[in-house]
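Quick one, T. Sequence first:
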Amino acid sequence: MKQVAVTGGAGFIGSNLSHRLISEGYQVVIIDDLSTGLISNVDRDRSEFHQISISDPKALNSALKNCETIFHLAARGSVPRSIKNPLATHDINATGTLNILEVARASGAHVIFSSSSSVYGRNMQLPKDELMWLGPMTPYAASKLAAESYIQAYSATYNIPTTLLRFFNVFGPRQRPDHQYAAVLPKWIWLAMQDQPIDVYGDGSASRDFTYVDTVLDIAISAMKERTLTEGPINLAYGNRILINDAIEMLRTSFPNLRVNYKKERLGDVKHSQNSPILLNKLFPNVKPKPFELALSETIEWLKEFGNSVANGPLTLD
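Structure tokens:
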């Protein structure tokens, strides 16, 4: 059976992907330094786990040398975290990606890479498409754009098979809700479950193109099976421009007493996010995203039942 690897496999998207791949019969190698990921997310009985950092090229080469596909999801996330420590963000997101590509250059592995819609930054035009100019506003965005450039350069120079996916605001089960850099939806759900108020930076008129994690898995695994290779990026979002205030009203369906604190906008936050999914639909016509409200409801139910399994993890201190 084909051996595949998932970097960041103890994290949110990586653990969901690892479990899906295992269930489909693949031999899965998981790479994670557990700086933010959780060992409880790893099925150690049915996968091969290596607690190493993608900043360690020697360890990576040893662990990944026999993998035919590398899903490269490991990253140092969070815009505020990158503003606090830009060098650490660059080391993991840019240099770490270069290390993965060096492994693939030696082995010929297909690299499926997760970038971020944050690379658009100062470009406020909506909806986004893959041909637009990019203007990173934060060290996090700059590090992901640097990684994108290395992905494309290694594809062109060394003929490494690559697939470059730009994620937009992914949410769903297994996403950590309780640390200072937690994504907005799980954080809000977690606070609401404890009857605590939620914070909104700005007046709530900002919007996001939220993408359910199951959709991300469908695209990523399809890219592997169909060997969908790209010369440039593919935006992974379906044009669902959800206003923050509208998401809050949907949350009130489950939490009628939800309290909201509106605060000053944060440095580096992008006001609006929306993709034009023309290329995505062309390359992956059989993938159909779940409606946002239903996906949000499933996420709420998962956190109510299993939230403690992903809470109280590493503090992500810098």
